[in-house]
Amino acid sequence: MALNGTLHDVSEPLVEMGQLTKQALKEMRLLVYELRPPDLEKEGLVGALHKRLNAVEKRAGVETRLITHGLMADMPVELEENMYRIAQEALTNALKHANATTVTVYLSTSDQQVTLEIVDDGCGFDPILVGNNGGMGLTSMRERTEKLSGLFTIVSTLGAGTTICVQTPLNGNGQGATIVSRH
């Protein structure tokens, strides 16, 4: 580039711009994936959870298990998507904050109810101290549970791990959400 009669090298800014463009593209793809994960659409909730556990948690060195009980085929799409997002957030919290080495995801259906439970052996926390200031993850899980007219429970003890449990009607037409925190 010639500026006032001097020649400046533009290769470094162009390389930096190329790197920024690649990073922006990666982030955009992640956002699109987050809107409706292809695994959820193709394989349903159980398949998507299984892939998530294998793809993320196992790579991070966390021992994972997925235990299912009941029929999962008749779940409404909105219910599957919200349950997946709740599990995804709980798993992210177990990795980012809890330093868990083992995470078990239980998913069951019975009597027109779906139960999702994520149990980790991480450092735990005091739900009473966290309260409504639990950050975006806990808030998002609570809000999704409310949307499903379900029961959201956190059981956690410092040094003894955390259990996140969501119980919701299979049809999503319950009486309204109840939020319970215990330690």
What is the topology?
Blueprint: E1 2-3, E2 6-7, H1 11-35, H2 38-57, E3 63-69, H3 77-96, E4 102-110, E5 113-120, H4 127-130, H5 135-147, E6 151-156, E7 162-169, E8 178-182
Parallel strand pairs: 3-4, 6-8
Antiparallel strand pairs: 1-2, 4-5, 5-7, 6-7
Brief synopsis:
The protein is of the alpha/beta class and 183 residues long. The chain is built from five helices and eight strands; from the N terminus they run E-E-H-H-E-H-E-E-H-H-E-E-E.
- Total helical elements: 5
Summarize the biggest pleated sheet. Answer: 6 strands, mixed
- List unreliable stretches of 5+ residues: 174-181
- Largest sheet, order of strands side by side? 3-4-5-7-6-8
Given helix and strand content, the structural type is alpha/beta
Can you tell me the CATH topology? Heat Shock Protein 90
In CATH terms, the superfamily is Histidine kinase-like ATPase, C-terminal domain
Helix content: 40-55%
Supply database-style keywords.
alpha/beta; disordered C terminus; 8 strands; 5 helices; 183 residues; Heat Shock Protein 90
Write up what this structure looks like.
This protein is α/β, with parallel strands linked by helices. It has one domain: Heat Shock Protein 90, CATH 3.30.565.10. Helices cover 45% and strands 26% of the residues. Helix 2 (38-57) packs parallel to helix 3 (77-96) and helix 3 packs antiparallel against helix 5. The longest helix is centred in the N-terminal third of the chain and has 25 residues, at 11-35. It is globular, with a radius of gyration of 21 Å. Residues 174-181 have low confidence and may be disordered.
